[in-house]
Description:
By secondary structure, this protein is α/β, with parallel strands linked by helices. Helix content is about 55%, strand content about 10%.
Amino acid sequence: xxxxxxxxxxxxxxxxxxxxxxxxxxxxxxxxxxxxxxxxxxxxxxxxxxxxxxxxxxxxxxxxxxxxxxxxxxxxxxxxxxxxxxxxxxxxxxxxxxxxxxxxxxxxxxxxxxxxxxxxxxxxxxxxxxxxxxxxxxxxxxxxxxxxxxxxxxxxxxxxxxxxxxxxxxxxxxxxxxxxxxxxxxxxxxxxxxxxxxxxxxxxxxxxxxxxxxxxxxxxxxxxxxxxxxxxxxxxxxxxxxxxxxxxxxxxxxxxxxxxxxxxxxxxxxxxxxxxxxxxxxxxxxxxxxxxxxxxxxxxxxxxxxxxxxxxxxxxxxxxxxxxxxxxxx
Length: 330
């Protein structure tokens, strides 16, 4: 699915982290290196280009001048973007060679590293020499999805900015997103499950695997009768281990909806007649047990951030759910 770039840009321009960056430029207080942290690659791509325009444009990223238009098209001479799947020493060497040259199309040079977390130690050490002794009129913009991948010496020389996620309503306000989905209910669910990650939201609505993961998550409590059932459930989820976070997000929303139903409320997120699945298993749970499972799911999600094995993490979660069911019954 191809989202409208202007819609994404307009949404980013309203965010506090971007407005703070803009204010630093207006007040002449830009530092030489920024690290923008987000697991949303699509947002980082547009955000870093937008920040580069703010740095280079005499009107702080007006969006209409020749500089801004060239940056949008990735043809502005003073902006170098490195977006390789693996950023290597050779990529840093190119930056080193370029930074020694005087700018000839503008007053400032900008270096964008979109996948900064992919740099190995050698590449980071080479880069360190460039940012520990800043070159005048040169700004580094790093897009980082995993802050733990960066050396402490690198992180200590950059300003850290956490990229605020989009809200569900912000994603749904994008016409190009809604038009890519046949029904608004699926769009709403994708926006919620993505947790504000635009890359993930656009993937979910177009991915044929989504229906399988949805059905597996909303039927998990029915399938988990005893410890032997864990084996079959793990066998089903293993081929989709790279999408385990989507599965966990669906399971989390479904469990929260079960909790809402148990408490007599009806403002559900789950769709596709999931109420039937909820009612069929709710007799096995109470409010306290559902709250406990929600915490177990969130704990599993935190483990995955630390690069735990997704299949083993899911297996531990399934056994935890069985334990809660047993405690609830007794």
